[in-house]
Fold each of these.
Amino acid sequence: MQIQLVGERPLVPRPSATVGTCRQFSQPPERQVKPKSDLSHGTAIELVDHYLDKFCGRPHSIFHQATLRSQVRNGSLNEALLYAVCAIGCKFSGNPYIRGQGSSWAAESKRLLQADISNICLENIQACILVAMLSVGHGDSASEALFFRIATALAEIMSLNSPFPEGSVIDREIRRRVWWSLYMTDMWCISGQGLHSQLKGVKAKIELPINDRTFMSLHSEQLAIVDPLDHGIWAQMITLVPLFGPIHNINRLAANGETHTINLDQQVEQLAGNLEDWKQKLPIDAQMNHENLRRQQKRGLGGLLISIHLAYHHYATLLYFRYLEVQLPRSASDRTYITRFSSSVLVHTLLFGDLDQLETASRELNTNFEALMELSQYWPAISAMIERLLVFQDMCLLSTESGTHKLDGWMLRFLIEHSLDIEAKKMQVNPSSLNADSEKLSSKAKELTEQGRYLRFRSP
């Protein structure tokens, strides 16, 4: 099974490089240094285990777990990659001192990677991906974009988007998973910064990843697998990603008023069908229910299962959001979309819901914020995400203007460009009515607070 991307951009054929083998095109600007003394061999083994147990396979799938563990134990892993893995893994350590080394190890990984960037190899691509993840986790969106783009360029030079008949099954599958990880990142993270996609229009020439359990069970010298077309949970995420571009485009057209509402509704209906079709065709192991979630948790794939369904609901949020605008005329399909979607948009419930809905909406919003605040101890950038949500709440609940859920340029930035800072929407203000508006806002805030519609949570 192959996924077909829209359009095709020809790539210059290049010889492939094997997994873990660097092709040095020029001397690196700095010599490689010995590992820093504060990262002992035993600590590295422990932190790699934390990384594999808590992080690997969620935002990307770029390692074979047994192979990575073996490389760490025998000391053969690229140093830049080792420091990047440990900088992520230390976030989950129970030792405060080790947790405090994350920034130092991330900086060391970046330094070693920059010194060795002319070596074209899979390990440097993997290191770029992890350095990019560390960057976004600390709010450095510029470095995130830079290292993801370097990784994509290296992958193109290595022809990762081409069949690779050499090497073991593990070698071939890691190459495939690295390229698909970059493809999904390019569709999601790059657009989240308002940047142009590098892989838009590139035709996929490789198969989807094999079943995740099969991949984890492979041994190092294995040359073939029994059922190579048995795709697992992670492959389902890849088949969902192509819908993001069209959904993104619809929202931009709506925000800019560039097309008629009827045309937009027709496109929404088609994409809604595509989303539902994706969900209905999920294999049993990828479906969301309590029984399957427990089963996948036992297999170490529970986080991955949750991730693909979060992505599905996020895409639905982006697709149906404009139907929350209360001033829009309602057709039967509009009401269907609202019913399908607005129950998960808790701020909308706080603003327009009946009083008997407020307690549940407030409780669930508080639960969401508590979860985000807990996550912020691992990823400092989450504090900025919380502030974005608070700005959104204030704009929706305290605005003196109507149409708080109107899909304009400001709202589009909030929904799509999730890596960028966002300021409160600038409203048209009549100076003569400024005092009256201020009093109205104060009165409205008090009223909403008394009703339970306005929540005063704040990030730590």
Amino acid sequence: MKLVYFLLVYFLSNTIIAQINKVEIIISSTNLSEDVSVVSTKNDEVLFLVYEIESEEYQSPLINEYFVLDSSRMEISIEANLDKNRRYEYYLLEMDSHRDYLQLDPIIRIHHKAIKECFVKGDYLGIEKYLEDDDILDINELTMPINKSINSIYKIDRYSYQITMNKEL
């Protein structure tokens, strides 16, 4: 009986502490990374991954969203259930390789420290060792709310993205 009581109290305390909210994350671009050179595809095949930061190791992503942005569609909306008491980190990637986007999550989970270190240093050859031709547009903490502008140049392509999340659904 004590075990049942303990489990009930434990469950209720975790339920009360957790503040899970359904949120809308909007990713938009005003300048795609694949729109400059004549060999560019004129669209960005984008992967947005969100991991909970709870230990040294990443678990499966809470968000694993693949989408294509082009001149006719420059914005995507993603709904997710996130806990305000937890910390999250996102990876925004532009996919240039021919592999399936589902293959990237396990690589990132295993090598996230090295990949992030290479990204911070601007070590594109180091990133290629793990992600081949896929480009990291940004790695950062996903806070609630967020209004993050991402503007940079990768190789010869300039890009501009915005990540916003400021309302609960």
Amino acid sequence: MKKLIISATALGVLAFAGYSLSVEGKSEEKLPELFIPGMGQSVANDFKLSLESMDSSELPEKQQVYKFKKFNITLEDARKKAAQFDPSFEKAAPKQNAQLNSYSFENETVLVEIEKDTGKMYYQDKTYPSEVAKNIPSDEEAVASAEEFLEKFGWLPETFEPAGVTANTIVPGDVNSETEAGDYVSTKTVHFYQKIDQLPVLGVSRIMVEVGDNGQIVSARKYHKEVEAFTSYGLKSVREAAQDLQTSKGVHNISEDAKNVVLDKVELAYYEDPARLDQQPYLQPVYVFEGTYDYEGKKVSFSGVVPAVSSGSIKAMDADVPPAVSYKEKEGK
């Protein structure tokens, strides 16, 4: 394959009244900008890219875009959902959070939070003891306990699968750090990530279950939004997407003063951003790039994300919008 050098010159964008042209020449409604957070470091914004041996022949010209389902969970609906965890919630008067648009049911033993428009839920068993756990399950046992819990309450769609387990450690207050081992495993978190159309879903789309002593479920977080098919959109070429990566129309972790930046791999994925439904009602495809560059005599790996839809773009993150989580990332409690 011929070596291609992509300059940092931006491409012209064909748009009219909020619409762009697809690969078939039909009008497509322009999608809202994606909220994709940066990598938390100073990055290069003026560099050249080499596409040497990267094979993009398997990538499609069009891809399905999905729309997030909007629910209207009433108080009665919320009570029924919360009562699955504690029957007393069936007649409870929950707190309502206007900012999060959610119900919060809580007593001395259980906390259940439910978002009205997305159906996202959080469960916590408040009885879990703070003393040292004696029978923390193995990773395999933790996954089995988490799956049993999620299936019992209908929280495990077929599109999700376990992606990893992390140990959560704490340090008792009475431990002498100079003479004793400081931390110990108190719980384990099982992470579930989603694939749609065989593509990984990046961003905030995840389910996490915290498993404690003897397999007790300490907490569960159902953070993903449900989707329904919207329509197919034409995609940018890899060359266009690579230029977007250079011109602040994508996100990457290429350090300043990087040299010999080479793209080795590109894949298609979906991205669920953390914005509210009124800000971002769609699950959109993105290109995920991987490659290397030279920095201070060393070869460094990097990754990048670019909206894949022809008219797709990103928007700078607001301070109150939570960061995204990669489907490969294994985070703790």
Amino acid sequence: GLNQYGGRLDFDEDKQVLRISATVGSCGVSASDVPYTITPIPGSNYEYWVKPDYSSTDFKVRLAACRDPSINADFFDSLHVESNKGVLMSDITISGGVRGSSWNC
């Protein structure tokens, strides 16, 4: 089958946690209740860096276990997110990740 790369983020802004689900080649990995920090990108209006804290999850261990040559678990340490009318969404890009893989949430 065709390897696919993508995924989604679901934000719970009240608790400041997110759920991440990623498809890495033929491997699927997800984690819930991941705390995160969010920082506006200087010079942009609606773009942010989201830094999830995966330490309470096995997300990165499971990601590494996928053994996908084009993905490094560190790619998921900093996620580029845009907001639309105050809602965090759309085009979540893995920094340094697979070229041309756009993420939607």
